[in-house]
Inverse folding.
C-alpha cells in the first residue's frame, strides 16, 4: 500500500472499509485466530489482531501481547519497536474456541501504531466513528 493511501486510510474521513481483510488473511495460509485486545482496567477495546499457536505460546510465556502479523507473515510482539507494550493480564477463549480475548495493561503511550495530532501513539485503534457516510474522530 502506498504511503499516501495508508495516510488517507489512517487519518482521512472517507469511509473505505476493507471487506476483503479475512480473504487476505486466509490467503496467507497461516492457521490463525482473531484476538480482541481489551484494556483490563477501563474495558476499552484497543486492537483486533490475529494469533497463531506460536504467538499464543509466546504471549503466555512472556506475559506480553503477541500476535501473528498477517501482512508481514511473522511474529509480532506488540511494543517491540514502538515501546508501546501491552502487558498480558489474562487470556480468555470464546465458547467455540475460535477467537481469543487478551486483557492487557498498556505500558507505553498507546496501543495503536498511528499517532494523534500531538505525535503520541493513539490509545486505541478505534479512534474514528461512522457518522452518516463519513468518519469523524472520537474525542479522547
Amino acid at each position: 500500500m502506498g504511503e499516501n493511501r495508508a495516510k488517507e486510510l489512517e487519518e482521512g474521513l472517507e469511509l473505505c472499509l476493507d471487506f476483503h481483510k479475512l480473504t487476505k488473511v486466509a490467503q496467507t495460509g497461516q492457521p490463525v485466530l482473531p484476538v480482541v485486545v481489551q484494556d483490563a482496567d477501563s474495558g476499552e477495546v484497543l486492537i483486533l489482531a490475529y494469533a497463531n499457536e506460536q504467538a499464543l505460546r509466546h504471549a503466555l510465556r512472556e506475559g506480553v501481547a503477541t500476535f501473528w502479523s498477517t501482512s508481514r507473515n511473522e511474529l509480532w510482539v506488540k511494543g517491540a519497536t514502538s515501546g508501546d507494550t501491552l502487558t498480558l493480564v489474562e487470556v480468555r477463549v470464546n465458547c467455540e474456541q475460535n477467537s481469543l480475548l487478551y486483557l492487557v495493561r498498556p505500558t507505553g503511550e498507546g496501543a495503536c501504531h498511528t499517532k494523534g495530532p500531538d505525535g503520541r501513539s493513539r490509545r486505541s485503534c478505534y479512534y474514528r466513528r461512522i457518522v452518516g457516510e463519513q468518519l469523524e474522530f472520537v474525542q479522547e
